[in-house]
Structure formats: structure tokens, C-alpha cells
């Protein structure tokens, strides 16, 4: 198959190499539901881009340990680590890192609060719970880290491409909504009221706050409420910063220097999720580059139809002769049927979203466990 060619007739081909080679593209975001190969796709894109001359960092979210090992790293953490074994003849290099949600949140506090207030926040039990387990915190911190990386790269030229593997979300909306949701929570009227002293010139307000505080004390307990009030009072000076950074990150994602890739598997549920994500990205005016369809069936002998293979397998089975040949023919027939189903699903997606470019990646015979495996994924993404 020639470079950039696409095996699915009637679908617009996603030119992956052209996208990786475009110097105006500074951020690539791989998004989609869990279990579709999103993290592996991000790593493969990073390897291919680096070996084509880009200075790349891949930010992954809770990757499988085998992916770190595939890049020759004992582990991934919050510090970018150089991936050895990359062909650097064209001047590129590859670093990889994993989001540390708690550490990123701590850095936000340390960078945007005075030392005394930062210490109060970091030691507060409500903050510890919020930074570790609050719904949406992982998605928000992924975007916070992206903003930090992009700002640093713009200042020192360390990277010219950031590849982001987004968190696996139950809802396709979580990733886009999380920054605004978290900043709105931290800037909410309720939290501000909780931190306000229950005294002042307006007695009706004070009495009302007393009722609210009393009710919340019964609901969550006096100590928890005290922790919340202490946390909000200490964080008050950084409220505007959360909202400002969330809005700045959202604006960055809307710019033409960002490219979104929706990753899916050729399955009905995954493609429904992908369709929803495509529509949401368009609604938010986010630059969608295309769809990556992972693990497509790729029978070896496509000139032998499923019907012919299964018929021949049945005949051999009934005769009792050549059982191994019968098994091979049956396996081929089943793969041909699967490929046909997947092709119909892909074409149905293409009909619903005619302007979306698609790259398909045939299923590998085994999991990716080294750089060569990532290179193979990158080559298949590019139609080689």
C-alpha cells in the first residue's frame, strides 16, 4: 500500500506524516474512550515525529507499565525522561512523562500563592482529598500540565511538538468540561459564602449564613466544614488564577496550532463515542485532524471470500480429511466476515461525518513491547 493510501473505500485518508511534519502544529491531542489504544497511538506518533525531526514530548495519563518498557524506560513520572534508541539523524528527540495529578495540583498552589498560604493549603485535609480524588481533577490537571509544558517550550525551545494522551473518560465530555467545571467549583458562590465571616452590617445575611452553616455541620460534620472554610480562606487569592488558566488552556486548544485525533476501535460503542466526540469538538470549534481506527481486521488473502473459505472448511470437516487446512480456512473466513463488519461500521461513520479524515491501523499479532513495535504502529498509521 502506498504512503497515505487508505484501505476503506470512500473515506477520506488522514495524512499522518503531513500532520507530523507541519511545523505549525505544536500540540496533538489523542482523545477517545478507554481501551481503544489511545496511549499506544500517542506514543507511536511521538516516536515517528521524533524520527522525522521533531523535538517531542509525550504526556501520558496512567499508562500501562509495558508502554514505559516499550520506550526503554523503567518507569514514567512527572519529570520528562529522554527516550533512548530514537534515530536522531534528522535532529529530533523524544521525551516521555506521566501525569502526577497530586504533584501538578501542588505545583499550581506553590506557583500561585504566597509561601504561608501555600503551606496552609497543602496541609489542609480538604485540599488533600480534592487534589487526589475530586471528580474531574485528573482531566483538569492534564490540561494544567499541558499549559505548563507549552509555556516552557515556547520560552526555551525544548520541544516543538507536545503529544497528549487524554485520560480515559466514561463520558466523552469529561475532558473538555473538566477545566471549567473545576475552576467554577473553586470559584463558586457557596465556597465563598462558607469562607465569609458570619458577622457584618446585614444581620439577615448573617442569620441566613448561620442557618446554612448549621445545616452543613449536621450533614458533613463540624471538622470537615472547618477544613473547607480554612481551605477556601487560604485559597482565596488564587481563585482568579484557576479560572484564568482554564480559559487560557481552552483557548489554546481552539487554535490552529493544536490538532485533535479521535481514537476508536471498529466497534459500535467505540464509534458512537467517537461520533459524539467529533460533534462536540466541532461545536467547540476545536481543530479536528481526523479519526484513528485501531485494530482493524486484516486478512492475508483477501481474494478468497469468506463464503468460499467457510464452505471449503465445512466440506473438509465433513470429509474428515486435512483438519489443519479446515481450521485455517475457517479462521480466514471468520476474519473476512469481521473485516466486512468493521468496514461497514467505518463507512457508516464516514457517511455521518463526511469531512473527517480516517487512518486505519491493522491489528498486530501481539502487544507492543518495544520501540520497533511503536515504529510499526506509526508506519501503519501513515499507510506504509
From TrEMBL:
Q: Which InterPro entries match?
A: ArsA/GET3_ATPase-like, ATPase_ArsA/GET3, P-loop_NTPase
Q: The ArsA/GET3 Anion-transporting ATPase-like domain covers which part of the protein?
A: 26-297
Domain of life from the UniProt record: Bacteria
User: Can you provide one Gene Ontology molecular function annotated for this UniProt record?
Assistant: ATP binding
Q: Name one Pfam family in it.
A: ArsA_ATPase
Enumerate the PANTHER family for this protein: ANION TRANSPORTER ATPASE-RELATED (PTHR10803:SF26), ARSENICAL PUMP-DRIVING ATPASE ARSENITE-TRANSLOCATING ATPASE (PTHR10803)
Protein name in the entry: Anion-transporting ArsA/GET3 family ATPase
Amino acid at each position: 500500500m502506498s504512503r497515505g493510501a487508505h484501505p476503506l473505500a470512500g473515506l477520506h485518508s488522514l495524512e499522518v506524516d503531513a500532520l507530523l511534519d507541519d511545523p505549525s502544529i505544536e500540540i496533538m491531542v489523542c482523545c477517545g474512550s478507554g481501551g481503544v489504544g489511545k496511549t499506544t497511538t500517542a506514543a507511536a506518533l511521538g516516536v515517528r515525529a521524533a524520527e522525522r525531526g521533531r523535538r517531542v514530548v509525550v504526556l501520558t495519563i496512567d499508562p500501562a507499565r509495558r508502554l514505559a518498557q516499550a520506550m526503554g524506560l523503567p518507569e514514567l513520572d512527572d519529570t520528562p525522561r529522554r527516550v533512548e534508541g530514537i534515530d536522531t539523524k534528522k535532529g529530533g528527540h523524544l521525551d516521555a512523562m506521566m501525569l502526577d495529578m497530586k504533584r501538578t495540583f501542588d505545583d499550581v498552589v506553590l506557583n500561585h500563592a504566597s509561601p504561608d498560604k501555600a503551606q496552609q493549603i497543602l496541609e489542609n485535609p480538604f485540599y488533600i482529598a480534592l487534589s487526589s480524588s475530586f471528580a474531574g481533577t485528573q482531566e483538569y490537571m492534564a490540561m494544567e500540565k499541558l499549559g505548563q509544558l507549552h509555556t516552557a517550550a515556547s520560552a526555551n525551545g525544548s520541544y516543538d511538538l507536545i503529544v497528549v494522551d487524554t485520560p480515559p473518560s466514561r463520558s466523552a465530555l469529561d475532558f473538555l468540561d473538566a477545566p471549567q467545571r473545576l475552576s467554577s467549583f473553586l470559584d463558586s458562590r457557596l465556597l465563598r459564602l462558607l469562607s465569609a465571616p458570619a458577622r457584618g452590617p446585614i444581620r439577615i445575611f448573617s442569620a441566613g449564613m448561620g442557618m446554612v452553616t448549621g445545616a452543613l455541620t449536621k450533614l458533613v460534620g463540624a471538622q470537615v466544614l472547618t477544613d473547607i472554610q480554612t481551605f477556601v480562606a487560604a485559597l482565596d487569592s488564587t481563585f482568579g488564577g484557576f479560572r484564568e488558566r482554564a480559559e487560557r488552556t481552552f483557548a489554546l486548544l481552539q487554535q490552529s496550532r493544536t490538532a485533535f485525533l479521535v481514537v476508536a476501535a471498529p466497534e459500535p460503542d467505540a464509534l458512537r463515542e467517537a461520533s459524539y466526540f467529533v460533534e462536540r469538538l466541532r461545536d467547540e470549534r476545536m481543530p479536528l485532524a481526523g479519526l484513528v481506527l485501531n485494530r482493524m481486521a486484516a486478512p492475508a488473502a483477501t481474494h478468497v471470500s469468506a463464503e468460499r473459505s467457510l464452505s471449503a472448511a465445512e466440506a473438509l470437516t465433513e470429509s474428515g480429511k486435512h483438519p489443519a487446512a479446515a481450521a485455517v480456512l475457517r479462521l480466514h473466513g471468520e476474519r473476512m466476515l469481521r473485516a466486512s463488519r468493521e468496514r461497514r461500521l467505518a463507512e457508516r461513520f464516514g457517511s455521518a461525518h463526511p469531512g473527517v479524515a480516517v487512518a486505519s491501523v491493522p491489528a498486530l499479532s501481539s502487544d507492543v513491547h518495544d520501540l520497533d513495535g511503536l515504529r510499526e504502529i506509526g508506519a501503519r498509521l501513515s499507510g506504509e
